[in-house]
Amino acid sequence: QAQLLESGGGLVAAGGSLRLSCVASMFGFDLYGTRWYRQAPGKQRVLVASIDLNGTVAYADSVKDRFVISRDNAKNSLYLQMNNLRPDDTGVYFCNLYRAREFWGQGTQVTVSS
Q1: Rg of the chain taking only CA atoms, in angstroms
Q2: pLDDT tens by residue, the chain, 114 residues
Q3: Which string of DSSP letters, residue by residue, matches 56-91?
Q4: SS3 assignment, position 114
């Protein structure tokens, strides 16, 4: 089992920055791929960024060159540095661990005002 706890969300003006964190209470964090998802109001959850257990990263086109995903296996932690935020980045951000099964956090709200 794993418990994931996100933090770092908040209200920010367009053009601002936020850094999201996700801490996993579990063994074997380094064996899991990790992802950040966003769910905007009334919309489906979408993949924003991923970093696998080898450190390979991938981003949604909408966040490329603005967001940076990283992880610290020694701290069982996943991060998302979000720069030059836009109103359409607004939503609840969830961290996700995947291997044979998936684990989800409870989410952290990000609101970007125009």
Answers
A1: 13
A2: 889 999 999 999 999 999 999 999 988 999 999 999 999 999 999 999 999 999 999 999 999 999 999 999 999 999 999 999 999 999 999 999 999 899 999 999 999 999
A3: -EEE-TTTTTTEEEEEEGGGTEEEEEE-S--GGG-E
A4: coil
- 96 Cβ contact partners less than 8 Å away, ≥ 6 residues apart: 4, 34, 35, 36, 37, 102, 103, 104, 105
85 contacts 63 by C-beta, under 8 angstroms? no
Strands of the sheet containing 67-72, edge to edge, are: 3-7, 18-25, 77-82, 67-72
d(CA 92, CA 114): 17
